[in-house]
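Input:
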Amino acid sequence: MSNRTIIPFGPQHPVLPEPIHLDLVVEDERVIEAIPSFGFIHRGLERLVEKKDFQEFTFVAERVCGICSFIHGMGYCQAVERVMGITLPPRADYLRTFWAELSRIHSHLLWMGLVADAFGFENLFMNSWRIRENILDIVEETTGGRVIFGAAKIGGTRRDVTNDKLKEIGRTLKTIEAELHAITDVFEQDYSVQQRLRGIGILSREDAFDLGAVGPTLRGSGEPMDARCEGYAAYRDIEVEPIVESDCDSYARCMVRIREIYQSFDIIRQVLCRMPDGETEIKVKGYPNGEHFARLEQPRGEVLYYVKGNGTKHLDRFRVRTPTFANIPPLLKMLQGCDLPDVPVIVLTIDPCISCAER
Amino acid sequence: METPQEIVTIASSDLLAKVQEQKDAGHRLVQICATTLEQLELSYSFMGKEGITHLRLLLPRDQPSLPSITDIYFGAFAYENEMHDLFGIDIRDIRVDYKGKFYKISEPAPFNAGCLIPTRKQPS
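Output:
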């Protein structure tokens, strides 16, 4: 005879840097159902758009999250630029793409460290973060920030990077990429990593699509959807093939992220090769009047920015639908039927960013 | 190639039928959001191969009410609970209903309240 018990998981838990709570309904050691609860740190940042000038609000948008900060700023700017009919100088588009892909690499490396830590592989955790530091150094050299880049602005970018510096960065990235193989080989081949990730947290392709999964969570279930294929910024000149795995488990989601890191290195190489010369910003005149939904690809998946302007310096509405928010229903599906000790790893495989979800 | 987008205005009474059409067409629910204007303006976004459709409907700011679409798109429960907590929209029959406890906020429906910009003091 089985016993049904409710086990609280979070909001404070060793694998959760940010607060989310799950009531796990378990029978013996098997999870029957997970009931999520969040909103512990909801900040109401979206509503600040009524108080901040639409140009000044770029700084707030970037502070939605400390990991994918740059793409939040870029996405907000892109949505406002579409409303105002602004076309960016090509160099600004390329620089934005360069920083967006650096964000993806450092975010995925951060995730690799966290998941390695969650299943007790300390050496892998430390090496993932050691390599991530090199990426953050490049971000710091080119933007002056490590967490908040502050590089995007409506009408272009706040900073330029000299062509000599870009060449030097290209050489540094080659070294980092070579070093990265040492840790990604462990993720791909190590027996203990496979034991902790293979066959757990199954999310079928149909469920992933029906429940609105995005990013590596969706692509790990075999659905080839990547918002970069929309061709925003420099992606219009660079072909992006969605990285897809079909095993639908935690290992598949891990492999998607690892392959995406190498893809990002490739995209950056193309960006550096094709970087056009010229201005990095144009002067913005007038106020936004109209609305637009901008769709971009964050490291955690598709993100949607909605802006609605009324012809004044304050917008009527700014809305972000973050990838973590979309991945909560699929997470509940993955947890159904799993073993209790697998819960922390499964939760981490959606790469939850509660800061984004609690914008 | 940017995905084409269109905004389709519907009556709130047609919501379930229109959402069911999106489901039958195999479209994915992308997001739901509300905007506080003179009325509440809601956008339900769906994506298919041919583009993104935003179903747009208006609700009164006083005691707004709508049926839930979670029987059609289960994943909508997060968006619907969010709209309930932030905008005070009474969404009926949500399959996972937090009854106002989705966000731990200090005042009810803060996004449906007056403008945040402080009014200037009138000279005496």
